[in-house]
Specification:
Length: 212
Amino acid sequence: MASQAGKAATPTSATGTSSSGSTPGADTVSNARPCGAAERQRAFTLIEILVVVTIIAVIIGVVVLSVNVTGRDSELHKESKRLDALIAMVRESAEMQVRDYGLYLEEHGYRFLVFDPRRAQWTEAEEPELRARSLPAGLALELVLEGRDVVLRSPADNSAPLPQIVLYASGDLDSFTITMKREGTDHRAQLHVAASGQIEFTDVDHMPESRT
């Protein structure tokens, strides 16, 4: 009778299996599995964080390459000074060769042209240093000619376009202001030509420079 009472007191599971017959250590294994899953979940989260941090670092690195730690946009200054120097060189060539040169600006590039009096048309300048140039990503041009804003577009076809700015063989110049800017920022440089022929170059980091 006592053994029957002991058997009756043994609890059974919903499936009718006695809990006393469970495998030793089963509870330990069962409890360990959720812990392992949690560790894997944390690992996946760390990987995702590392990916995001890497993307942010790359974006910041690109900006730093253009705008150094002093806040100066070295790329903008370099490209705007290049354009300034090319215009000065072309003005000198125009006077020496007694040929009219032209400058055609696009939003993200520019090219120099020369006037052919025999064919009475503008053609691409043949000098290698006057080849068509594209600005680095993020830089853009604006033009004000004789006090009016000019919409800058790419040529409609492969033929040489009509220049917006003419650099006359006589040394004369129309009044214009070329602005090169870093899109989305306040960084900009200007090349301003007054009607008197004086050229003034300014940017956000340097004092104005003037020459005649």
